[in-house]
């Protein structure tokens, strides 16, 4: 029977009882960001934050939401420092269970996220959340929770609670979500209630006077996976200066972590190209798929291998908005200097939506 290590969470609550200042963080995809809630106060994240404020009135509690819709833990591990960890969080809920595919690749990138959190100098308490596709019951919790169990991190499964109640007839799908995935206000409330019920159970065990000791210099067990992505980096115009052969650097200023299509490179015309050199063993290309069709498509050549060109299609098949798309092009390859050439083919035509290259994500 799995027994999570709750020392960090208990210490966090003890500090809250003593009136300390705390940062409560949330990290994940669109459900964490708050998609389809009528306002931010109705999201599961803000409801849980409100519980911390109301349960520990002596404490000064701050809210950080690092959710970005349509993104996986592969992107997450490259952005967790700038979007959550730099705020020195004391408690963080992580959920990528509907954006990660249930496979070993995302198990590895997810482990990178969890290790970054657990080793951060603010030593945050971490809680894993498994949201679910209400129309299919699918998610990546088997892979994610295996990581949680390896590190003694607690987890809450919406598949095993709210979704199961729906299957048993307590709720209809339409009562919880308008699209089969993103919860409405009531769905967000039920998610929050599951989390709060867990937190209340821990709070009831806390003695405010008895100091809980945890190691200040955290050591973790050997990684469960190959763990190539723990120190992944995201390279934008702020971090790397590629050779521009028609592409141009985007001069628009980025206003926040939800201002997605900034700090990248733009290709406007056939034959426009951009060339990178990076010394790594894992490479992914992050670019925009847009609903404003037709859009330009680009071709990627890795290390001069023109027999295995990777197509980067800028057209998005869905209609909910532009998509942050991440295309892995090298996973556990040779650790050496690799070249990445991205070019708009000569066969493309003008007057299409430009190709927007957001970043390279390397490890």
What topology emerges from the helices and strands here?
Layout: H1 7-17, E1 21-28, H2 30-33, H3 44-55, E2 60-65, H4 73-83, E3 91-95, H5 104-119, E4 125-130, H6 141-151, E5 155-157, H7 162-167, H8 173-176, H9 185-203, E6 233-235, E7 243-245, E8 248-249, E9 265-267, E10 273-280, E11 283-289, E12 297-302, E13 310-313, E14 323-330, E15 336-343, E16 355-362
Parallel strand pairs: 1-2, 1-3, 3-4, 4-5
Antiparallel strand pairs: 6-16, 7-10, 8-9, 9-16, 10-15, 11-14, 11-16, 12-13, 12-15
Structural write-up:
The chain has two domains: 197 residues, Rossmann fold; 130 residues, Jelly Rolls, CATH 2.60.120.260. The strands form three sheets. Strands 6, 8, 9, 11, 14 and 16 form a six-stranded antiparallel β-sheet that branches. Helix 5 links the parallel strand 3 and strand 4. It is of the alpha+beta class and 363 residues long. Helix content is 26%, strand content 24%.
Query: What is the CA-atom radius of gyration, in angstroms?
Result: 22 Å
Which structural class fits the helix and strand makeup? alpha+beta
CATH class of the largest domain: Alpha Beta
Provide the CATH architecture of the largest domain. Answer: 3-Layer(aba) Sandwich
Low-confidence stretches: none
CATH homologous superfamily caption of the largest domain: SGNH hydrolase
Count of β-strands: 16
Distance between the termini: 35 Å
Sketch the major β-sheet.
6 strands, antiparallel
Helix percent band: 25-40%
Number of domains: 2
Topology as a string of helices (H) and strands (E) = HEHHEHEHEHEHHHEEEEEEEEEEE
**Outline:** globular
Global mean pLDDT: 96
CATH topology of the largest domain: Rossmann fold
Portion in strands: 15-25%
- Helical run tally: 9
